[in-house]
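Dear colleague,

Thank you for sharing your sequence with our group. We've completed the structure prediction you requested, and as agreed, I am returning the results in plain text so they can be pasted directly into your records. Please verify that the sequence below matches your submission; if there's any discrepancy, let me know and we will rerun it promptly.
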Amino acid sequence: MLSAGDEYPIHQVAEPIRHAGTSDRNFYDRYYWNLHPCSGEYFVVMGMGVYPNLGVHDAFLLLRRGTTHQVVRASRELGDRMDVSVGPFRVEVIEPLRRVRFVLDDNEWGLSADLSWEGAIPAFEEPRHYVRQHGRVYFDTMRFAQTGRWTGTLRVGDEVLDVNPDRCWGTRDRSWGIRPVGESEPMGIRQDPLFFNMWNYAPMQFEDFSILYIVQERADGSRTMEEAVRIWADPDRPVEWLGRPEHEHTFRPGRREVDSAVLRFPAAPGGGFDVRVTPLLDAHIGIGTGYGFDADWRHGAWQGPLVVQGVTLDTATDADRLFGIVDSVARFELGDQVGYGLHEYLFLGPHERYGLTSFLEVP
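Please find the predicted structure tokens below.
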């Protein structure tokens, strides 16, 4: 199947661009962004993904504001991979690796956006994520990350929020490869589906630099992935690797939700330092968006030729539905410097250090 992408010299295998180099059903290629006004006023998370071997293209926008958790989402049959649109959603690449536009047109759910992203640092290639279990590769992904700023408008009902780069910051990533997507598969030998027990990801933006932090651990604290780097806004300054990062999380009573945290970088060049993390507003991105915690809407799952939906929850009355991976807009304090960014985490199953001994036990 030829498509617009075949006109460009970007082929990697002896196939048209429409076809991935692997026939693994779980191959995907997706965008992620978030937007916040450096406060807990509101938090927006956006995504769009392509699943070539499932024949699906989907997208979402999540707004957390006050106690409202509101999602607009869409899914369609995949055609030309250069057509980066799904119903009312579209993405425009203005300047690769630097400037991108995300649009959600007006719709019946009263949530729309026209937002332009500009990177504050060069896009950074993160470590390859690879997990094999019971002989099968479940994760084999690549990703680049970037902090940046937003310009545009966000419409919520009759209210229009001005989005300007002085206060509206965010982070984004582009990832592709293999990870579980689409409809659930038979478990077979995989009776224990946990690939890791703690995921903690914190891209944080300060005025002159950003820090990208990743730690993924098993129940006993052994690590399957880690990285910590400082990337300067000045592209002539080299990236600084900060050594092995450490973490200290304090939970809210009765919830697997982080109330505060300290991220430590004891081996950083020039002397170790700590960053204090204060979550300002949580978004449970696994709910309504497709990140695996809803039976009726998963990334890559077939919904039909084109389906557009809206989902609205109240975080006060629907708290029991809010489970799994959490994206928090957070304040980061490094000495007298204050930054803002994403504090993302998932504690699933036991984790010895934090006293979690069962799948659903809470601190």
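Summary note from our side: The first strand starts at residue 27 and ends at 35.

Kind regards,
the structure core
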